[in-house]
Automatic annotation (TrEMBL):
GO terms for biological process: L-valine transmembrane transport. One of its GO terms (cellular component) is plasma membrane. This is 4-azaleucine resistance probable transporter AzlC. It comes from Rhodobacter aestuarii. It is a multi-pass membrane protein. It comes from the Bacteria. Belongs to the AzlC family. The chain crosses the membrane at residues 20-41, 48-68, 74-92, 137-156, 168-187. Pfam families: AzlC (PF03591).
Length: 244
């Protein structure tokens, strides 16, 4: 998000600053999350360009950690790619959720949304669009830009600091708290329906059951089973409602 649009003038500025303000609390977890990845990349033997390439090109913290861990475990290139893609499959669901709101945007606008889509920005946008679905397309895009502004540049800069400092950051800072806290804060509000709850439960249970499998294959299988379980639950509920 190096070319983030500047805050718009006029009524759209209200949407921009609303998104900006609502994203500010995530700074508390994005900064240590980025620092932690910078340190992890440094300890894995990556140089500064490789660490920053991960964060700027991939911009997906969870899959970045997954890839680095598997590379440290000497997993094959194919397995590293598959595991990282499995972790990021949620982005496909995010896209499907936002498509009814942003699908009419221009190609470059949709490209910007796709590139800058992170969990926090999606969670905020999804909640805002569902709260006020009749907002104009311009207002929705402006809100999304505002939500990304405090998050994405901070991810870059905190990764850079972590990569530069490396092991100089004392373990007492316990930066790894940011990973579970971030995902708990984002996932909990999204568990709004029975299919969501089923998918979450299946993913957790199967990830634990299949943890013995090598090189992250258990995570891939757990993610696929969770998606199937959630989809089947949704179909079952739809048929049940149709019969009532």
């Amino acid at each position: 998000m190096t070319n983030t649009p500047s805050a718009p003038a006029g009524p759209l500025s209200v949407a921009y600053w609303r998104g900006f303000r609502q994203a500010l609390p995530f700074i508390l977890v994005i900064a240590p999350f980025g620092l932690l990845f910078g340190v992890a990349g440094n300890e894995a033997g990556f140089d500064l360009l490789e660490v920053m390439g991960f964060s700027v090109l991939v911009i997906a913290g969870a899959s970045q950690f997954t890839a680095v861990q598997l590379m440290n475990d000497h997993a094959s290139t194919v397995m590293v790619i598959l595991a990282a893609l499995a972790v990021n499959l949620r982005m496909a669901m995010y896209s499907a959720s936002l498509a009814p709101h942003l699908g009419a945007a221009s190609t470059w606008q949709r490209a910007f949304v796709a590139y800058s889509m992170v969990d926090q920005a999606f969670a905020l946008a999804d909640a805002d669009y569902n709260r006020a679905p009749k907002q104009s397309l311009a207002a929705k895009l402006t809100y999304y830009t505002g939500a990304c502004t405090p998050i994405v540049p901070l991810w870059y800069s905190s990764t850079l600091v972590g990569a530069l400092l490396g092991k100089a950051i004392p373990p007492a800072f316990a930066l790894d708290f940011a990973v579970p806290v971030t995902f708990l804060a984002m996932i909990a509000p999204m568990l709004r329906s029975i299919p969501h709850l089923v998918a979450a439960a299946v993913s957790v249970i199967m990830a634990l059951v299949l943890a013995f499998l090598p090189a992250g294959t258990g995570l891939i299988i757990a993610a696929l089973l969770a998606m199937v379980a959630g989809a089947q639950t949704e179909l079952w509920l739809t048929k049940r409602r149709a019969l009532q």
